[in-house]
Amino acid sequence: MSTFHDLHPGPDGTINLRVPLRGHQILDTPMLNKGSAFSEEERRDLGLLGLLPPHIATLEEQLTRTYENYCQKTTDLERYLFLTGLQDRNEVLFYCLLHEHITEMLPIIYTPIVGAASQHYSHIYRRPRGLYIAYPDAANIEQMLRNIPYSEIRVIVVTDGERILGLGDLGIGGMGIPIGKLALYTLCAGIHPATTLPITLDVGTNNQSLLDDPLYLGWRHPRVRGAEYAAFIEQFVAAVMRVFPDVILQWEDFAKQNAATLLDRYRDRLCTFNDDIQGTGAVTLAGLLAACDVAGVPLHQQRIVMYGAGSSVHGISDQIVAAMVDEGLTPDAARAQIWLVDSRGLVHAGRTDLSDEPFKVAYAQPANCTDEWVRAEDASGPFSLTEIVANVRPSILIGAAAQPGAFTEALVREMARHVQRPIIFPISNPTSKSEAIPADLLTWTDGRALIATGSPYTPVFYDNRLITIGQCNNVFIFPGVGLGILASGAQRVTDGMFVAAARALSTLSPARHDPHASLYPAQTEVRHASRHVALAVAHEAQRAGVAAACAAEELAQRVDALMWEPRYARLLPA
Ligand SMILES: NC(=O)c1ccc[n+]([C@@H]2O[C@H](COP(=O)([O-])OP(=O)(O)OC[C@H]3O[C@@H](n4cnc5c(N)ncnc54)[C@H](O)[C@@H]3O)[C@@H](O)[C@H]2O)c1
Ligand SMILES: O=C(O)C[C@H](O)C(=O)O
Ligand SMILES: [Mn+2]
């Protein structure tokens, strides 16, 4: 069972796999099951005779049947359940179907519908996947890690469910996210599914409606905090390092008070990164660099307002500063061009509530920066976002506060008065949390805005043109980063690897060749983009000395060899 991922095609391109299982055991193993596509020999030699309808289907026939079924579903949640069911039954067919219909199905297995599935997790639950590590079982984590069906795990995505997209604390329901992210590792970067492991650390939930829900599947307890939480995480990481010493550990959708702390605590101890901070930083920088190119104004001359000052803005700000420094600014001069806005308004040094957030302190504008600012009529209290925009006159506006509709018409029109090509990225997820809708942004800026969104949007018809909206989502980064780490054998994940990823992705922006095109590649290009990102990450890992050097051709070969294609192996009895 441990060698699923070690499949090398023979001279005729066929992959032979000897399996110690027979009959129903094979049909019940999604990594082995081919459904109606088992050949005559396989049926005879593996105890499958009579267990399947007589016709031996081709993969194409299976895809037709499966897609036909999919199309009969009438709600997105049913589509999600259908695809999850397929994943739990036949993984090759699942990934083949996703490859064929990626634009249609990515929003189902990932953002935004994975958000709805996570909200309803305890009501739609069918089968377990991955590991559920609850706080009361802290003493058994190592045993749990050894209970999983595969023994050669290379990538773990872990959440504690506290900040699932912009939907808040979803407790055990957060499991939808690591499952979805790891499906994308396979779909977008070819990481073999049997080498991935989704994990939810169930430390309770403070979501009262979940605690009150009789069907809730998690540990019914308020969230464990403080020293107990830290000790539990430490036990988890230590167990992971014992059982899977070479694994990549990706932290996902932790609340901001834990996200940065855990990253700082563990980044020098194992191969680990935080996707919401670092992955989001990189994907946003990639789109901004392309947008700056279209606007004809380099990044270091842009004035940037960030709405939200949590994990994602932390990562985005740090990446922007790194890129501005590459363009010749000092770090201080770069930070001076970034204005953060959190739930209490502008982040400035005169505030007394920043001391436990070092990231905000580093980006705080001078205490007196608003002394000369003009107030809106009748305004009092902290400056509103519209007032901040009116006074700062930003050329870039990023939204990552999960406050739907926060980029109002008045605000956007104000911004567009001062800049020829306003760059506006409402990146909050899912769609229901977006700060603005692309069609509105185009209307309010007379089509001048350069837009990207966190969740996918259909193209907008504006001024007799169909405008494709690029998706500024870390899906364009983390699968390639993981692939690059595995291919290079990197021991640690550096910030430089994310800047390299951003620059690599940015070169693939369709807008670089056609100023009317999207700032990000289409979803159909994501596998190509991941490969490109992986190579850049692997080279940077070598340059930084966290991976052993090798020739560029060898690195490319290793990347390609790791990229699994979903197709059936020929199963032989062991
Ligand atoms: N597109 C992507 O790839 C991507 C990646 C990561 C996060 N996100 C999305 O970004 C959003 C934020 O994620 P995060 O990890 O930064 O969350 P977070 O909880 O770490 O930070 C949220 C921030 O928003 C601020 N905020 C809350 N209410 C506010 C208000 N009314 N006005 C101003 N600021 C307010 C908070 O003070 C905090 O600074 C989520 O919707 C998430 O789904 C998107
Ligand atoms: O999950 C996503 O779509 C992106 C991001 O990681 C988020 O938390 O919103
Ligand atoms: Mn996330």
Write the layout of secondary structure elements.
Elements: E1 16-19, H1 23-27, H2 40-45, H3 59-71, H4 76-87, H5 91-100, H6 102-109, H7 113-119, H8 121-124, E2 131-134, H9 141-147, E3 155-159, H10 176-189, E4 196-202, H11 208-211, H12 226-243, E5 248-251, H13 256-266, E6 272-274, H14 275-295, E7 304-307, H15 311-326, H16 331-335, E8 338-342, E9 345-346, H17 358-363, H18 385-392, E10 396-399, H19 409-418, E11 423-426, H20 438-444, E12 450-453, E13 460-462, E14 465-467, E15 470-471, H21 478-488, H22 495-507, H23 526-543, H24 552-562, E16 570-573
Parallel strand pairs: 1-16, 2-4, 3-4, 3-5, 5-6, 7-8, 7-10, 10-11, 11-12, 12-15
Antiparallel strand pairs: 8-9, 13-14
Helix pairs in contact: 9-12, 10-21, 14-15, 14-22, 18-19, 21-23, 21-24, 22-23, 23-24
Manganese (II) ion is lined by residues 252-253, 275-276.
At CATH level 3, the topology of the largest domain is: Rossmann fold
Amount of beta strand: 5-15%
Q: Percent helix among the residues?
A: 40-55%
CATH architecture annotation name of the largest domain: 3-Layer(aba) Sandwich
Order of neighbouring strands in the sheet with most strands: 9-8-7-10-11-12-15
CATH class of the largest domain: Alpha Beta
Low-confidence stretches: none
Which ions, cofactors or small ligands are bound in this entry? nicotinamide-adenine-dinucleotide, (2S)-2-hydroxybutanedioic acid, manganese (II) ion
Number of strands: 16
